[in-house]
Design brief:
6-stranded mixed β-sheet; globular; alpha+beta; FAD/NAD(P)-binding domain; D-Amino Acid Oxidase, Chain A, domain 2; 20 strands; 8-stranded mixed β-sheet
Length: 412
């Protein structure tokens, strides 16, 4: 243990302030109430205060800061999506992420690695070519490469891959990883410094609506008067929308991940296999961070399973056989709020003053900063910015879906 850390732990007089203040009670009124103290909710609060001077904001969470999907994801950032709407959106998020450590004055361990999406069949490779053309047209660095170039960039990979040889890949050099917990805490600190109140262990029990408009929020610590409420609670979204009588097409499915014991650095890239339904990267601490596709059933649960880790390990050993003796340290699950078109639901709803930031499925963390900026704009102006209008809730009634399944179903 570093001596400086030991001294800090034993001292009774701390020279450094708390990350954010602790509030013993709720105010009677807030201009904005944000439900969910994850990355999205905290980012929206920060940009509301920074860009629009709206500081009478309460961020409520029934658990603890970053304890939901923000703390359960695998921290991959990329912009190589399939639809023009998706590419533009995540391209802006990637730009914000690159500047975020400086903006928040906090080391987020942002590390560009390069992102492979491997293809093992000709059909999958055709989709990669499609994505590459859309990406290049919109200025995103993304291209299709063959097995020889893949092996030169990542020589530890077994291109033969058991019975499913790698026939090509979509290579996205700006693909990166970033510390997810650092993102949440940095947004919380900066929002708090600007006057936002963060209330952990505060459950929302009801949202009061009168004549189609939000008028308040009921919590287990009292009632709040407000006319603007943002729900940013990922897999808990259906529980919140029921409070205002709103139906959405969301379904909740578990998504699991795991990490290994630390290893010496050997994997520089982020490797995703579209056919094997797996992805892997190596953290700054040397752990292999791994995951697979969604569990194939609807379930509101954060319980992990042996079946998941057995299947993942089998496919991973096809790509990297030398990992057979490596131990899995821990595994976990999160609740993914999935939409029919694998794109988010953002913006206004039929309930005046009730806003949604939901439908993030397996790709929510990489959208954290752009969700913060766009939802802050929406809350401040009661109007969605152009960038997120394709993701409006009304698209399902208007038959204007944003089909991202080919880019989002596996490639976290």
């Amino acid at each position: 243990m570093p001596l400086r850390l030991l001294r800090f732990g034993l001292t009774k007089e701390y020279s450094e302030p708390r990350m954010f203040r602790r509030h013993d009670r709720l105010r009677d009124h807030y201009d904005v109430v944000i439900i969910g103290a994850g990355g999205h909710g905290l980012a929206a609060a920060y940009y509301l205060a920074r860009d629009y001077g709206i500081t009478n904001v309460a961020v409520l969470d029934k658990g603890y800061l970053g304890g939901g999907n923000t703390g359960r994801n695998t921290a991959i950032v990329r912009a190589n999506y399939l639809t023009p709407d998706g590419v533009r959106f995540y391209q802006e998020s990637l730009r914000l992420f690159r500047e975020l450590s400086q903006d928040l004055d906090y080391n987020l361990f942002y590390s560009e690695r390069g992102h492979f999406t491997l293809a093992h069949t000709d059909a999958t490779l055709r989709t990669m070519r499609w994505r590459a053309e859309v990406n290049k047209h919109l200025g995103v660095d993304s291209r299709v490469i063959g097995p020889d170039e893949i092996w030169k960039i990542c020589p530890t990979m077994d291109i033969e891959c058991g019975h499913s040889p790698v026939v090509g890949a979509l290579f996205h050099p700006p693909g990166a990883i970033v510390r997810h917990d650092a993102v949440a805490w940095a947004y919380a600190r900066e929002a708090d410094r600007r006057g936002v109140e963060i209330h952990q262990q505060t459950a929302v029990t009801a949202i009061n609506v009168e004549k189609g408009r939000v008028i308040g929020v009921e919590t287990d610590k009292g009632t709040i008067r407000t006319n603007r409420v943002l729900s940013a609670v990922a897999g808990y979204t259906p529980r919140i929308t029921r409070m205002v009588g709103l139906r959405t097409p969301l379904v909740i499915q578990p998504l699991q991940a795991c990490v290994t014991e630390p290893l010496k650095p050997w994997l520089d890239q982020i490797v995703v296999s579209a056919n094997l339904h797996l992805y892997v990267s190596q953290s700054s601490r040397g752990e292999l961070v791994m995951g697979a596709s969604l569990d194939p059933y609807e379930l509101h649960s954060e319980r992990s399973t042996l079946d998941f880790v057995e299947g993942l390990a089998s496919h991973l050993l096809d790509l990297f056989p030398f990992l057979s003796g490596v131990k899995v340290n821990r595994q976990w699950a999160g609740m993914s709020d999935m939409t029919p078109d694998f794109s988010p639901i953002m913006g206004k709803t039929p309930i005046n003053g009730f806003y949604l930031d939901s439908g993030w499925g397996t790709w929510g963390f990489k959208a954290t900063p752009v969700c913060g900026t766009t939802m802050a704009y929406t809350l401040a102006h009661d109007e969605e910015p152009e960038l997120i209008r394709p993701f409006r809730l009304a698209r399902f009634n208007e038959y204007e879906l944003v089909g991202e399944k080919g880019a989002a179903s596996v490639g976290h």
